[in-house]
Amino acid sequence: MVGLYASTLNNFHAKGIEHIPDNGGVLLTSNHISAYETIFLPSIVVRRHPMQMLWAPAKEELFAKPIQRFIYSSWGAFAVKRKRDMKANRTINDLLLDQKVMLFPEGTRHKDGRLGGGNRGVGKIIYDTKPTVIPTALVGLNRWKFPGFGQTGIVRFGAPLDFSDLYQREDCKETHILIVERVMEAIARLLKEEGAYCGEA
Q1: Which of 70, 112, 118, 191 could bridge across to 105 with cysteines, CB 3.0–4.6 Å?
Q2: Do the domain assignments include residue 25?
């Protein structure tokens, strides 16, 4: 149903999905421009990797209503609290041992399409779990309306990032910042290549 709405009634398509490995811990790190992402990204990934889930933390407000809770949960989303949620962090770390997880390093949505700064907590997760990190750029979804038809959008998956030099550094705030900065630079490059970079938020 999600795929029908996104890719048939509208024109949402993927580029570079071959960069996502079949197995092992995989972290998709994406810009955050629309509420559609939490459903559309899993639908694209599951189409390529059947019988797998793309897990994603989502703000607990999205789970307040039963119908919304069912929809988001069925696509691998789980609720997190606004403030620092240690239980959610442990869940993410455990999942990244062998599962696919989606995170939005900005931590907040930018409906104008601008790219915000990355949260160093994402750098810490990457340092601790050392997953395959796939930079991901979303384009156009911030202009979609529901219901709508003929709308266009793109998700672009980049090649896995190399953090081997940063993994040699001390486990500290500065290292985590350097890691997430590399992630955000990669997302910005993908957006520029798609002609969609709007500058920093």
Answers
A1: 118
A2: yes
What tens digit of pLDDT does each residue of 13-38 get?
Answer: 999 999 999 999 999 999 999 988 87
Distance CA 111, CA 100 (A): 26
Handedness of CA 188, 189, 192, 196 (dihedral sign): negative
Closest CA to 101 of 113, 90, 117, 109: 90
| Beta strand 26-30 pairing with 132-139 | parallel
Which domain, by its residues, includes 154? 2-193
Q: How far apart are CA 41 and CA 88, in angstroms?
A: 20
Structure tokens at 148: 């709508």
Q: What is the CATH number of the domain that holds 91?
A: 3.40.1130.10
Number of structural domains the chain divides into = 1
pTM (2 d.p.): 0.88
